[in-house]
Amino acid sequence: MHILDTGARFSAVRFSPVFSPSTTPPRRRHFIVRANLPFPKHQAKYHKELEAAIDAVDRACRLCVDVKKSLFSSKEKILEKNDQTPVTIADFGVQALVSLELSKLFPSIPLVAEEDSLFLRENNLVGSVVSEVNAKASIGDNQLSDADVLEAIDRGGKDAYTSIDVLQVLDPIDGTRGFLKGDDALYVVGLALVVDNEIVLGVMGCPNWPGDSSDGSTGTLMLSHIGCGTWTKSLQASGDWTRRFVDACGLVNKARFCIQESQSWESLPLSASFNATTDSNDIHSDEILLLPTCCGSLCKYLMVASGRASVFLLRIRTQRTIKSWDHAVGIICVNEAGGKVTDWEGDEINLEEDQSERRIIFPAGGVVVSNGSLHHQILEMISSASPTL
User: Fold this and answer.
1) How many H helices and E strands in the chain?
2) In CA terms, which of 66, 81, 270, 367 is 20 to 30 Å from 264?
3) How many whole angstroms separate alpha carbon 290 and alpha carbon 202?
4) Are 30 and 241 in contact (CB under 8 A)?
């Protein structure tokens, strides 16, 4: 059940916990929500799981911030995985922390996540991860052992679960390259709950998201629950929830686009119709605005769901696999904000195609994430241009 049916879209509206669901608040009026959730619990079937996810992601983001502060003071903090993707103590720490927090409340729900402990053991860095996790976990006076943390990490490994009807899907840090840059490049901790191949809730935390709040603070926490919308608040301990909507752009040449930092605009089908520019002050009629790249896919989902971007395009490269944790939480956040996510043929993303592990997705051609209004136009342009690319 939706809290509100406005019949229109705007980028951010705040709601009160006491208004009637049948009442449409006036435009630009702010209604403040000061609660753990921005909507009544009875409206959210999975409110317990959502509250646990919010707490876990919040703790994980604080771990990331603390690790990043010391990232460049110790070379031991930075590792290089076999696939040449940079990984840090934070990746393993986040996976262990989220796994521990969720398993206490929902021990029967398996976790699908990116890391496993083998690499950590081989590099003799278990102690560093255990220290970070102990500092953030809700363990009271008890200290987690090396074995506790390693087991928590491997709970998300590909051989760790048997039930696949209900899954928690975690990306410990999406945009690790941004995390390692030491500047304001965006990165996201993303967690989703999947029930019978339907994503029913998601939480994303972005510690250095440019401030939306009046106090100028940075960092955002975004949540979505099926039928309850997409909401954000500051990553600070207290704050107000603000409902988010995709933008209302209905013209492709007026849209703001995001693409993978590893892909060029010229490699995408729409380049047959439009050139791209990053200069928002000088856009010609045959150009579209390409927003500066940010690391990781989930950052771009966050941008579309919050109304800062209109479209995110991802083209599949034959040498790369598409991982479920790079998309699951982003999909529900965009959908609940009024947007749409499909493959290049217009089909919804299927999380069950990887029948044995639920770790890989196979979207035809790539992924299209949009504000919904532009989706059909984008798909038509992809269809007409793809044979020549």
Assistant:
1) 9, 18
2) 81
3) 27
4) no
Residue 83 labelled as part of a binding site = no
How far from chain centre, in Å, is Cα 61?
A: 13
- Angle ∠(256,259,264) on CA atoms, nearest 5: 115
50's tokens = 């959502």
Residues 125, 76: contact at Cβ < 8 Å? Answer: yes
Question: CA–CA separation, 195 vs 45, rounded Å?
Answer: 12
Distance CA 98, CA 152 (A): 9
Q: Residue 155 burial by CB count (10 A; 0-12/13-18/19+): exposed, middle or buried?
A: buried
> Any known ligand binding at 154?
no
pLDDT digits (tens, 9 = 90+) for 257-309: 999 888 899 999 999 999 999 988 888 888 999 998 777 899 999 999 999 99
Sign of CA dihedral 71, 72, 77, 80: positive
Q: Summarize pLDDT for 328-386 with one digit per residue, the tens.
A: 999 999 999 999 999 999 999 998 888 777 888 999 999 999 999 999 999 999 999 86
Q: Are 194 and 328 in contact (CB under 8 A)?
A: yes
pLDDT at 29 over 50: no
Q: What is the mean pLDDT of the chain?
A: 83
User: The dihedral of CA 251, 254, 258, 261: what is its sign?
Assistant: positive
171 is in an annotated binding site: yes
Exactly one of 58, 88, 116, 176 is catalytic; which is it?
Answer: 176
What is the model's pLDDT at position 357? 78
Active site residue 91: yes
Torsional sign, CA 52, 53, 54, 60: positive
Q: Which amino acid is at 40?
A: P
Find out whether 311 and 374 touch, Cβ atoms under 8 Å. yes
- The annotation status of 114 as a binding-site residue, yes or no, is yes
CA distance 171 to 164: 18
Q: Which of 15-24, 135-144, 220-229 has the highest mean pLDDT?
A: 220-229
Q: Is the pLDDT of residue 310 over 90?
A: yes
Is 230 tagged catalytic?
no
Give 240's DSSP letter.
Answer: -
Does 326 belong to an annotated binding site?
A: yes
Catalytic one of 58, 88, 91, 116: 91
For residue 387, the SS3 value is helix
